[in-house]
Amino acid sequence: xxxxxxxxxxxxxxxxxxxxxxxxxxxxxxxxxxxxxxxxxxxxxxxxxxxxxxxxxxxxxxxxxxxxxxxxxxxxxxxxxxxxxxxxxxxxxxxxxxxxxxxxxxxxxxxxxxxxxxxxxxxxxxxxxxxxxxxxxxxxxxxxxxxxxxxxxxxxxxxxxxxxxxxxxxxxxxxxxxxxxxxxxxxx
Length: 188
What we know:
By secondary structure, the chain is α+β, with helices and mostly antiparallel strands. It has a single domain (19-185), classed as Inorganic pyrophosphatase (Inorganic Pyrophosphatase), CATH 3.90.80.10.
């Protein structure tokens, strides 16, 4: 009986999963599914996914829904000013909607670099590694911007305008090679 209770209390520590899978693929933990307006976050203390809170209530994005699955790259850490804790590197996986807590193997396509409230923020744009899960026929930055320039523009505009209370401006895009360097720079 005690063994069952201990087993039931064991929860996955998503924040500290390996950055790369056993197949040497980048991993992303999904927080908020594609098509949602209800942002989720990972509570590392309780090891659960919870609604992001604003003024004590569940937050809602009063804009178009997320254009991809928003999550983070485990075992990465970025220190932002005004925040006492490190945050994992953000990622947007361009795929059909998957539930919060899904761990996906992905191929990084590039990085959207933004300045939010005076601070650089990076969002890794990725596609699933498994071809049957891909919705775009692109596996690198050049293919992404050549075949899907409108998708790139939509993602950029969504992140620039989804929160009118944040002063956000575009810093630019990084290609897939620069993205891999960025990820390795922020490994724990």
